[in-house]
Amino acid sequence: MSQAHEILERARNARLAGKYEDALRDHLWFHEHALDEDPSLAGVRLSFALRDWIYLAEQFPLARRALQAIRDRDTQRLLNGGATLQRFMDINAINSALGEDRATHELFSQIDAQIPELARQCAELAMPSLVAVEDFALARRYLPAPLERIAGLAQRLNDFAQEMASRGSTSSAPALLSYVLNYTKEVRLITEVLRRSGEDELVEQVASAALEQLKSDALRDAVQREFETPGATIAAMVAHAKAGEQPPAGKQ
Asked: What is the residue extent of each domain of the chain?
């Protein structure tokens, strides 16, 4: 385990022990320095680490203010000459963890006006926040070819499913279900933007294409279930995890 991993684990243990200042100190270090030591932690830094930081903030309000301060600092850096996709990813992830979609919308609106090339790169990341605050006009501008977008998303899912099938391991099922869940979320975002833009005919075309573009019946069934019963995919993931915890027959 790398030093960065150890510090993140130490932050979690400190929170559980009620040592909130120590936990915050380690979270600050991890967010600022983890990638210098281990670039493979990029995903963890913007997901699990921020989740744990929010858990800390629920018990220690200073932690929330510290995270907001990092967000505000990086926002100013982005707008004052340090405009990069990675910086927007950081800010977007923090706002998502904080539940502050409006802050992402405000930043993206500024980028749209001042740095249009970066706005094009960031639009996919910003789309959930644009929908959350109901700025459908701005969202639609960055969704110029919905059917092409669906085709690209479907191709990613098809490729991932094929890769998982080639491995032939049931342990890959949770990853595939997670991909299905993300796919349906993306399709719902697109259809919501179109629906709220008054393009009902295109909504139907997108909904049909989202299923037709998938190459296997199993994928289509999984996606259809999630469309018809939101939460079905998460339920399947939980069921798979519980099945994995069961002892083999004869070992009880």
From this structure: 1-59, 71-142, 146-245
